[in-house]
Amino acid sequence: MKKKNLSKSVLLLFVLLMAVVMSACAPVWDQMQLYFGGSSAQNVRQQYTQMIQDQRKPLLVSVTLSGECDGNIEDYVSIENVYMKDHFSSGAAGLVGVPVRVSFHDVKDPELAFVYDPDKLHGMPEKNFVLLRANEKQQRYETVRLDRPDDNTYTVTASIREEGVYTLVDAYEWYAVFNQDVSEFEYEKE
Q1: Which domain, by its residues, includes 35?
Q2: Residue-wise pLDDT tens digits, 10-35
Q3: Is 4 helix (H, G, I), strand (E, B) or coil?
Q4: How far is 54 from 52, CA to CA, in rounded Å?
Q5: pLDDT tens, position by position, 122-172
Q6: Which ranges of 79-137 does DSSP label H, i.e. alpha helix?
Q7: Shared domain check, 120 and 94
């Protein structure tokens, strides 16, 4: 009987010891998988923010790309102010901020957020924001559906699918160039 209890005690002690060792090694295993190119058990939603400081077009304060990815999102995302570098996008009618080149890979459900300075709107209502993506191969712009602007945080967001150059424009000026009805976007500039 004593021998049986001793065997049970040794077995229980062994199981507890293994549980402690395995739980201590789990974070190390996750890090080894990330380091050697494996994936962790789950993607984590993260964000990468690029501050925008351009006195020529001071409306934009920052641009953020958020999405799910393994590892550090900074390794997967790049946002660059291309005002006057990308002449196609810099010449868009009604340009209200700087065009930005957004590059990313291995990011799921990417969302782009533009933070703007409300004092730089010069009377333009927030509902007039239109987000364009430059299709340089076809020399045209594609309209990207925006979520409603948040006038508490001064943020305009959109879900995106592709990399590219994104530009915010004023709907009144943009659509007027194409002789479209702009009466719903009219306002008095300051």
Answers
A1: 1-40
A2: 544 554 444 444 444 444 444 444 44
A3: helix
A4: 6
A5: 999 999 999 999 998 899 999 999 998 898 999 999 999 999 999 999 999
A6: 87-90
A7: yes
Dist CA 82 CA 96 (whole Å): 14
Asked if 133 and 146 sit in the same domain, the reply is: yes
What pTM value is reported for the model?
0.76
pLDDT tens figures, 41-56? 478 999 999 999 999 9
> What amino acid is encoded at 95 in this protein?
L
Listed in sequence order, the DSSP H helices in 124-190 are: 171-177
92: CB partners within 8 A, 6+ apart: 99, 132, 141, 167, 169, 174
If asked whether residues 34 and 48 sit together in one domain, one would say no
Q: In sequence order, what DSSP letters do the residues of 147-161 get, joined into one string?
A: PPPBTTTTEEEEE--
Output the six-digit token pair for 113: 């957020």
Q: What distance, in Å, lies between the first and last C-alpha atoms of the chain?
A: 94
Q: DSSP assignment, residue 92?
A: -
